[in-house]
Amino acid sequence: MEAMKKSELKELYQMMFPEYPDIVTVRQLREMLGISRQLAYDLINDGELQAIKIGNNFKIPKVSVINFVTEEQKEAKSSA
């Protein structure tokens, strides 16, 4: 997996999920990806998505969600 260039990431950051803040909650993550609560926590606990635990809540950097989505797209294309 190759790292994304800063310019690419900045472009994607402005295009993808512009209505969401820089740090999202699990609920917002679920909305962004259209996934279940269980899958959201599985992705966090398995290290697929970077998250920070503050108290009892996870906070997920939006950039982590964008990286996850773009990596999934690359893998889907390469295995097709």
Automatic annotation (TrEMBL):
Which top-level group of life is the source organism from? Bacteria
Q: Does the keyword Nucleus apply?
A: no
What the entry lists under InterPro entries is as follows: HTH_17, SinI_DNA-bd
Any idea where the Helix-turn-helix domain is? 24-71
Instruction: Drop me one GO molecular function for this one.
Output: DNA binding
Q: Which UniProt keywords apply?
A: DNA-binding
DNA-binding as a keyword of this entry, yes or no, is yes
Database matches in NCBIfam families: excise (TIGR01764)
Q: What name appears for this protein in its UniProt entry?
A: DNA binding domain, excisionase family
Q: Which organism is it from?
A: [Clostridium] leptum DSM 753
What does UniProt list as this organism's lineage?
Bacteria, Bacillati, Bacillota, Clostridia, Eubacteriales
